[in-house]
Amino acid sequence: MEKRISKEGYYLGLAQGAAKRAVCFRRFSGAVIVKEDQIVSTGYTGSPRKTLDCFEREFCLRDKLEIPSGQRYELCASVHAEQNALINAGRAGVSFLGGDIYIFGQTRDGKPIDAFPCFICKKMIINAGLKRVICSTKEGGMRVFIVETWIEEWKDRRRNITDDDVQYGKGLKINK
Fold first, then answer.
1. pTM of the prediction?
2. DSSP letters along the chain, please?
3. Mean pLDDT (whole number) for 1-27
């Protein structure tokens, strides 16, 4: 008999299911927000409602412009999975204050990635009042971040948000 899956594994698996709806050329990501052991929202990487996605357009603007991963998100046609999960909860009038967000990510060809939030999503997660962020990793496991730790690190006047030890994208450190 197989061992019962952990709750973190269960919710991360649901985020993986949400990622199957993603419509981004670069990454397929899904997110699930859980509060008091109840799913309150989901999201996946995709274009804003009722607009064309990258597959319908048949190109990624950031690829065309040769923009590296982790940079120039304002030129991306998609909304990140974490952002969509937060927006969807807001549209439904659901409270997620003090909840956890589970994020799964993989490349277009199915290779797992470190599904760590970008800086924009980190700021949104902090302001949303979430407690923990549980992410899939490229090794096939998971990593748990405590949001309060991000807040404490960013209070240090000698640091910037780009000085995070764990970040999405390469070469973004400005103080080192």
1. 0.88
2. -PPPPPHHHHHHHHHHHHHTT---SSEEEEEEEEETTEEEEEEESBPPTTS--HHHHTS-HHHHTTPPTTS-GGG-SSB-HHHHHHHHHHHHT---TT-EEEEEEEETTS-B------HHHHHHHHHHT--EEEEE-TTSSEEEEEHHHHHHHHT-TT--GGG-SS-SSSS--S--
3. 91
